[in-house]
Amino acid sequence: MSAVLHDYWRSSASYRVRIALNLAGIAYETVPVDLLANVQRSRDHLTRNPQGFVPVLEIDGLRLTQSLAIVEYLSETRGLGLVPADAPGRARVRAIALAIAADTHPVCNLSVLEEVLRNGPADEQEARRVHWMRHFIRRGLVAVEALLEGPRTGRFCHGDAVSLADLCLVPQVYNAERWGAPIADLPRIARIAGAARELDAVRVAAPEAVRPATQPQGAGGLSVRK
């Protein structure tokens, strides 16, 4: 194998990197990091990534962390063109990507939600968990829908070619669907996510397509990176 990806099947950040690896045609070995079993906090994984996050990509003699940094590395070294060549385009694509990856996804991380639920009544935890996820996922995607307004949006988030923004959007839509966040009123997002999911590179990166045999359908808890 030319690369090793330490990931979790339902991690949004890992999902982004899997899509990029597929777009680049890079064969890779998957090393599962079970977030629900706290493997991300093990000594071995903290040696790979002191933050205790997934994914970690070992490629080209490097050990890379942070999904957006990994995706941009793959784009630059494999000529994927996931970030536009023009400065205004780069700014727009990164703004959309970061609206999801920096402002929406982290609030729904396992460690954040664990802390939120820690002091509440045990019998209300599941209802509070679902409310939290639906609220923040929807709030983020409503903003992204507005960012997609205008002629620069095409078949995908920025024109008619897949970009870093699309690699962030698809996993977040998956999270919205899992948690029942209401997004039926966001037509641009629905159209773009639908077009992206038609791509083989996206389809084979989907969580259900890479779910380990040891994880039964419906298992996996939160769609988070740590």
Automatic annotation (TrEMBL):
<dbReference type="InterPro" id="IPR040079">
    <property type="entry name" value="Glutathione_S-Trfase"/>
</dbReference>
<dbReference type="InterPro" id="IPR036249">
    <property type="entry name" value="Thioredoxin-like_sf"/>
</dbReference>
<feature type="domain" description="GST C-terminal">
    <location>
        <begin position="86"/>
        <end position="216"/>
    </location>
</feature>
<protein>
    <submittedName>
        <fullName>Maleylacetoacetate isomerase</fullName>
        <ecNumber>5.2.1.2</ecNumber>
    </submittedName>
</protein>
<dbReference type="InterPro" id="IPR034333">
    <property type="entry name" value="GST_Zeta_N"/>
</dbReference>
<dbReference type="InterPro" id="IPR004045">
    <property type="entry name" value="Glutathione_S-Trfase_N"/>
</dbReference>
<dbReference type="InterPro" id="IPR010987">
    <property type="entry name" value="Glutathione-S-Trfase_C-like"/>
</dbReference>
<dbReference type="InterPro" id="IPR036282">
    <property type="entry name" value="Glutathione-S-Trfase_C_sf"/>
</dbReference>
<dbReference type="Pfam" id="PF02798">
    <property type="entry name" value="GST_N"/>
</dbReference>
<comment type="similarity">
    <text>Belongs to the GST superfamily. Zeta family.</text>
</comment>
<dbReference type="GO" id="GO:0016034">
    <property type="term" value="F:maleylacetoacetate isomerase activity"/>
</dbReference>
<dbReference type="InterPro" id="IPR005955">
    <property type="entry name" value="GST_Zeta"/>
</dbReference>
<dbReference type="InterPro" id="IPR034330">
    <property type="entry name" value="GST_Zeta_C"/>
</dbReference>
<keyword id="KW-0413">Isomerase</keyword>
<feature type="domain" description="GST N-terminal">
    <location>
        <begin position="1"/>
        <end position="82"/>
    </location>
</feature>
